[in-house]
Amino acid sequence: MSRSIHDLGTPALLLDVDALDHNLDVFSKALPGPRLRPHVKAHKCTALAQRQAERGHRGFTCATVREMVGLAQAGLGDDLLLANEVVDPVRLAQLVALDARVTVAVDSEATIRAAARAGIAEVLIDVNVGLPRCGCSVEDAGALAELARGQGVSVRGVMGYEGHVVGNEDREAREAGCAESMQRLLQAHAQVGGDVISAGGTGTYDCNRWATEIQAGSYALMDTAYGKLGFPLRQALFLWCTVISVAENYAVADGGLKSLGMDHGNPSLPDAKLWFCSDEHVTFAPAEGAPVKVGDKLRLVPAHVDPTIAYHEQIQLVSGETTVDTWAVDLRGW
Amino acid sequence: MSRSIHDLGTPALLLDVDALDHNLDVFSKALPGPRLRPHVKAHKCTALAQRQAERGHRGFTCATVREMVGLAQAGLGDDLLLANEVVDPVRLAQLVALDARVTVAVDSEATIRAAARAGIAEVLIDVNVGLPRCGCSVEDAGALAELARGQGVSVRGVMGYEGHVVGNEDREAREAGCAESMQRLLQAHAQVGGDVISAGGTGTYDCNRWATEIQAGSYALMDTAYGKLGFPLRQALFLWCTVISVAENYAVADGGLKSLGMDHGNPSLPDAKLWFCSDEHVTFAPAEGAPVKVGDKLRLVPAHVDPTIAYHEQIQLVSGETTVDTWAVDLRGW
Fold this sequence. Notes:
Chain A is an alpha/beta fold. Helix content of chain A is 28%, strand content 23%. In chain A, the strands form two sheets. In chain A, strands 1, 9, 10, 11, 12, 13, 14 and 15 form an eight-stranded mixed sheet that branches. The longest helix of chain A has 22 residues, at 171-192.
């Protein structure tokens, strides 16, 4: 049943369906079908993944086993990549039991042996392309692929996330950083073989010409960090809040540290000046000439979409000021 | 069934039962019975609230309606204070329907009229004592109390949170700031009347001599921010992680932005040097002479306990390296 967003309890996540569809269309045009492997960590929502699949992207990227399991159970298991290392035998057994094509990232002898022991059929060799996180050195990639194959595990290719450059606001530097990272990934691929070169994210979707598939997630919803990069994408996700207190030179609304990921800093409120967030509050100075009163509603724009989504049980899909559907954020947890 | 923490899936919240009981005992001794009104926003867990109630603290402080409802349903509704403003008639009706004594903070004509319309029986006048968040001015407190009483709502007294001083690491400055804030609250109380002067938090529990009750929450679990204040409290909450990748000069474990509140910065890992957190990863340089390997487990100490808890479905209660119980974080959401 549709209703006015003014009747929703707050704080609540609003997802503007027109902006969402616009973003999905932009990426489907730029990266058709299997050229895009949407990363579900950004939205953790099988209903949204379904919408991506309907546009021809049948392979998905995940960061957690929970995301892999949830997508498989939702019938979206054509080609699931866990772009993360896991050594827990219980979790690996969960993956093996799925009615889905499952590929797992590995970057060490330990992760390969754990995958082989569990019966994982396919892996990608995860290569460090400049971000100090998971991923083997370029030099070790070939030997690790050989080890995996020796254990009876099929190696589909390589992955390497240029996460240290995707957020660079200087376009030339971002492109140069991407090119450099992908040269490392191609060197590794020459040793590893296989059909897959998986990389990228929202920030490099239009300049990464070397990867066979791009692992982008944030593009669907967007946030203030990616908003600075000037892509033809629209802000689709908002935190809907109620003003609960008004003082002489500031006001307080009911969104805060438990409804917003804060690692990228404060959310934004167009025209107003954000002062600070507390657990369940945001204090801000309203724009001059635009006073607010208790009971007014407002839309905060999250600074970082992924850890924001992870705080919420559901998302309200809205068209203008009317709700269209309620989507469960059903891939939370681990 | 108890099991080794080494068999738990990660990331997982561990709550050391000895440290917890120590912290609860310290506060029960300093603030016996109704002198402490534990704030459940820090733990969002009725099982932990039950443990606080068993020590004689039968009144609780909440930040959300969900917390109020959950405590009442758990049989902990003797005296519940919603220390936050709410104007949503649906949420206010939920409060009125509870089998519990319910008191709500109000700081404006709008919040008083909303409470009265909904049938809320008791309120506290919320006074701004220096933190720019909710709370009326000292000067307005008396008139607001009169307005509430005129609407048939009982005014139990005042509350005012000195949140701008509770984290001050300079003890003298903290005490002076607390004294100044409480002078403002007492001025308001002189106009408002009533038995209750509710204020304080973990950071001022031992110096706030003016409040009739202290609204402390973090003391039970603790974090690195409150850990700096030198109280006789122990770190009780940890994020249990697995090392999933090891490079030459750093390693990566599976805790990150979706399992840790980040507004106070990075978590801590004793002896190691934290580099940065990603959605599902923490990159760190192990301590010299203490290399780690894939599969090793470690305990991160959260920088801010409240928004950390809010990411998790459950807490593992542990004694040493053995699980004792699993507690649901059952007061999440709104």
